[in-house]
Design a protein that fits this description.
Layout (H helix, E strand, L loop, with lengths): L3 E4 L3 H12 L4 E5 L10 E3 L6 E3 L26 E2 L3 E6 L5 E4 L3 H6 L5 H13 L1 H8 L10 H11 L4 H5 L4 H11 L11 H15 L3 E2 L4 H13 L3 E4 L14 E4 L3 H8 L5 H8 L6 E10 L12 E6 L3 H12 L9 E4 L13 E10 L8 H11 L3 H4 E7 L4 H4 L15 H6 L15 E3 L13 H13 L1
Parallel strand pairs: 1-2, 1-10, 2-9, 6-12, 10-16
Antiparallel strand pairs: 3-4, 5-8, 6-7, 11-14, 11-15, 12-13, 13-14
């Protein structure tokens, strides 16, 4: 017998399943793919033994997740690894903005902007473990720590251009802007500072960690906890209609809102159906994995030690490229994220051949080939990179929804993070997880607090369901 069904075995689907099972419900998770994980899958590519993350790779929000930290996932093989340098943002000329886990170390490298960086992040980072429960949840509820939330939340309401203007040096502005650009939103839009501030604050507390053995280790550990609690996972099961599911007390959907609208059809209340069908998806990603002999020859020394490298030039250039992709124009020099997870997790490499993970921000549904643009951006800051490449694996923007249907048009965030959707999710309401149909709940990254392997969307959605049982 089953009390609850979860459709989708990504981090949020599994988090929802674990939360329900902890309260004694008998849970079955149905996954359409042959393996669990969604955006946290990993696998060998290009060369035998060379391990690449398929999408999600670096986890500053997951390593300190209030939900994940309480599960003892280390018992099931999850080990967090930290690079020497969390993130570097090289600039033309060989300098770079350099981010360390330590606020003090980061500030020391930012010269005239060190004191400003310390004032912006030292207090919130020190209190992140208390603040995270309020930040990583739905908006319309009483916060546990209102003063801390207010201190963090007021700057988060601003466009990213405003905090960037506080800094005098190009390095500090670019470092902040590159992290803010993770939102795939124009940096002059309201709330575009929020994701950057959240990632930076969480990272200063817990670091930009990677999972040893690939991001797949996160969902494998979650599945092991679920099995301990008596839950089951069935792969290769594609749900085409909610009517085909057995009647249970709770059904959770780790899916994009449009897919939920299709599954539920006329059963979904009209207001919710309209909101889900009108849900906006954001710009896309174009991914290229590289096998690189000897690593990337970055001009900036700190980038050679950084788990993540942001390539976008100075803040003005970065802001211009994010504006371009938001209006469906492909920039000549796109913002490129580079992952060097092997620096913290050497077992991903084969001898002196290393997996280098990259993707570029591109327009929604982009049908072109951004491989040359990505290589050119790396060459710009690491001359001689091409000569070290032994092989590539390309995942075009159009392939993302084939591998993961939640990534509509290559939107790996499962929805545009504009102000309304960032705050409320797919529809404005007190409970962003409720569909309006009793017993049916949305638990994907389309809901607050949004994308990442932290599991908080699924956890909060399951708590919403439990409150109604």
């Amino acid at each position: 017998m089953t009390d609850a069904i979860v459709v989708g075995a990504g981090p949020n689907g599994l988090a929802a399943a674990v939360t329900l099972a902890q309260q004694g419900l008998r849970v079955t998770v149905l996954e359409a793919a042959a393996e669990i994980g969604g955006g946290t899958r990993s696998g060998e590519g290009i060369l035998p033994g060379l391990l690449h993350d398929h999408c999600s790779a670096v986890h500053p929000m997951a390593v300190g997740s209030p939900f994940l930290r309480g599960l003892g996932l280390d018992r099931h093989g999850l080990e967090w690894r930290l690079p020497e340098v969390d993130c570097a943002h090289p600039l033309d000329g060989g300098t770079a903005g350099v981010l360390y886990r330590s606020v003090t170390a980061t500030a020391a490298g930012l010269g005239a902007d060190g004191a400003r960086w310390r004032r912006l992040f030292a207090g919130p980072a020190a209190g992140w473990d208390q603040l995270a429960g309020d930040v990583m949840g739905p908006l319309l509820r009483l916060p546990r720590h209102p003063l801390r939330l207010g201190r963090f939340g007021l700057p988060a309401l601003l466009p990213a251009t405003v905090p960037a203007r506080l800094f005098r040096t190009a390095e500090a502005r670019a470092l902040f802007g590159g992290v803010a650009a993770h939102a795939f939103q124009p940096l002059h839009h309201p709330l575009s500072a929020s994701i950057g501030l959240g990632i930076l604050t969480a990272g200063h507390r817990h670091g930009w960690a990677v999972a040893a053995g690939g991001s797949q280790a996160i969902t494998r550990a979650l599945a092991a906890v679920l099995a301990e609690l008596g839950g089951t996972v069935e792969t290769g099961v594609r749900v085409r209609s909610a009517a085909a599911l057995p009647p249970v007390a709770v059904t959770m959907y780790d899916l994009a809102p449009g897919a939920v609208a299709e599954l539920l059809g006329d059963r979904l209340p009209r207001r919710t159906a309209r909101a889900y069908q009108r849900f906006r998806h954001g710009p896309g990603a174009f991914k290229v994995d590289f096998a690189v002999e000897g690593g990337v020859p970055w001009t900036a020394p700190a980038a050679r030690r950084a788990g993540t490298v942001h390539l976008g030039g100075d803040f003005a250039e970065l802001a211009a490229t994010e504006r371009e992709i938001s209006v469906d124009r492909m920039p000549e020099r796109p913002f490129v994220l580079v992952g060097q997870q092997y620096l913290a997790d050497p077992g991903r490499s084969v001898g002196d051949v290393h997996p280098v993970w990259t993707y570029a921000h591109v327009p929604h549904g982009y049908t072109g080939d951004a491989t040359a643009a990505i290589i050119a951006q790396i060459e710009r800051f690491a001359p001689g990179f091409r000569e070290r490449v032994l092989g590539t694996a390309v995942r075009p923007t159009t392939a993302f929804p084939t591998d993961n249907p939640n990534y509509v048009g290559g939107d790996i965030l499962t929805g545009a993070k504009n102000p309304r959707q960032l705050l409320f999710g797919p529809r404005v309401g007190v409970d962003p997880y409720a569909t309006g149909l009793p017993g049916h709940y949305l638990c994907s990254a389309a809901t607050p607090p949004g994308p990442g392997a932290h599991g908080m969307c699924g956890h909060h959605a399951a708590r919403s369901a439990l409150a109604r049982l």
